[in-house]
Amino acid sequence: MNVLIVYWHPEPLSFNNAMFRTSVETLKAAGHSVKTSDLHDMNFFPVSGRHNFTSTNNTSFFKQQMEEIYATDNNGFVPEIEMEIQKLEWCDLVIFQFPLWWFGMPAMLKGWVERVFSMGRAYGGGRFYEDGIFRGKKAMLSITTGGLEELYVKGGWNGDIDGILRPIHRGILEFTGFSVLAPQIVFGPARTSDLMRHIELEKYAIRLKDVFKEKAIDVGSY
Ligand SMILES: Cc1cc2nc3c(=O)[nH]c(=O)nc-3n(C[C@H](O)[C@H](O)[C@H](O)COP(=O)(O)OP(=O)(O)OC[C@H]3O[C@@H](n4cnc5c(N)ncnc54)[C@H](O)[C@@H]3O)c2cc1C
Question: Where are the domains of the chain?
């Protein structure tokens, strides 16, 4: 199967990088084709604008979604965006690897979504949710947190983690047709021992070996 791993962390020696490398190595060893988007390494530019396109249709008023439709019809995405869209179209599973920042995606990754999940290529024309363009594909978040697990439960300081991830699960992934797998979460890797971190990497590798057998979670019922 084809797997795309979209990863962001600014530090190559980080635990996120170890999770990223574990996923690439494990999935390749299991016989899957793996492509990556290492956004820090790519120095991916995360801000949308006219520069998303080789040319724009309306030169006096910029409306991104209208230009995305125009670009879809006219092969008008700049190569750095076109290449990322094609990776999404190619994959059977997309994994997002990132540290939770302010209860969400770090800016460079959010910007990748904003530029790459474009109207016409990722959604639109009545193709949403169950009829979404990426229907049949799976998606999974693999995240780390600063806070420990007990903070991320109902009634805990931060509230339950499923609620925090719901805007991504429902608003980005299910919206565009992906089936969402349970998130892989390492709570507070900086607050634990080297042994526990190695155990987390091992648990992730074991999970990934059979990831295509997994069923989607019920995002809607959170
Ligand atoms: C702007 C900002 C916003 C944030 N918002 C939130 C938030 O909303 N909620 C929240 O909970 N947290 C938040 N955080 C904290 C952040 O989520 C955590 O710092 C991050 O998830 C920890 O992961 P890391 O990869 O950066 O860990 P690192 O600090 O890179 O790694 C932890 C430890 O793992 C070690 N390590 C690396 N590789 C390996 C390996 N192969 N084997 C074993 N050990 C290894 C490292 O040496 C290090 O000691 C925020 C941080 C910032 C900067």
Answer: 2-221
Nearest ligand 1 atom, CA 189: 32
Distance 14 CA to ligand 1 centre (A): 7
pTM check: above 0.85: yes
The b-or-e profile of 68-88 (16+ CB within 10 A means b, else e) is bbbbbeeebbeeebbebbebb
| Distance in angstroms (rounded) separating the CA atoms of residues 39 and 110 | 11
Residue 36, pLDDT above cutoff 90: yes
pLDDT per position as a tens digit, 173-199: 999 999 999 999 999 999 999 999 999
pLDDT at position 220, please? Answer: 74
Atom of ligand 1 nearest to the CA of 21: 41
> Is the separation of the CB atoms in 149 and 189 below 8 Å?
no
Give me the torsion for CA of 151, 156, 158, 160, rounded to 10°.
90
Q: Which fold has domain 2-221?
A: Rossmann fold (3.40.50)
Nearest CA to ligand 1 atom 31: 15
